[in-house]
Amino acid sequence: MLACAELVVVARDGRSVVTTLRAQSPLALVPRRGVTGASRSDAVVHLVGSASTPLAGDDVTLTVTVGAGAHLTLTGVAAAVALPGGRSADRAARPSRTVLRCSVGDGGSLTYLPEPTVVTGRAHHETVLDVVLAPTAALRARDLLVAGRTGERPGRCRGTVRVTECSAAGNGAAGNGAAPGRPLLVQTQEIGDPLLDASPAHLAGHRVLGTEVLVGPAREQVPATCGDGWSLSPLPGRGALATAVAHDAVTAARRLADAVRAASRAVG
Q1: 239-256 pLDDT per residue, tens
Q2: C-alpha distances in angstroms, 154 versus 43, 55, 128, 193, 200?
Q3: Distance of alpha carbon 197 from its chain centroid, rounded?
């Protein structure tokens, strides 16, 4: 299944407003409305799976644009379960793929907090998160990968994250003619390889790998530090990458939260 979706948020009268919202099955975008939505200055949009996905052969792309001074929180409502394909040999041979391409303008922010992705047996899934930030834009992006269901040998998952700060020549409007600048983070991670997952340098036998990218609007330096099951690594220029491992998603999320608090204390 091939699907594309688009989401655009702009600043208007002191609030962040969704101006474009397009989606195709198996992905639905549901904005928060009513009293709860009206009480927030940021726009809140939920990612909802409208069909069983990701299945082998699925290719879903979401393009997100956050304008200057606008703020978007993009969240999931349920865990994504990566599944193998059906009987078609051609379909089963192609991995499922989810791509999220984002640009955030000056003074804007994107908070991306999806629910965990469970990589089931025989599944083969690929993810790409590609974010371009204006010089004073902020980003918080979390990813929780669960290697199989309980007692199940997991399939394969390969995730790539690219975060780039656009050049000042783009006048601080990421995604609006801004020239690409320096990379803040380029990282690819895999789970599902038994030797790699058992390595002390990777999962060390744990089932869950969590990462969280934290980039603030200022040139804040975050020192490297670590705790019980988590670490915090500075990014060049500004921001940090938090990494956590655990035997379950709840513990991994709690350890990531510990790392985020450590980063907040470090920058005052």
Answers
A1: 999 999 999 999 999 999
A2: 35, 15, 20, 9, 18
A3: 21
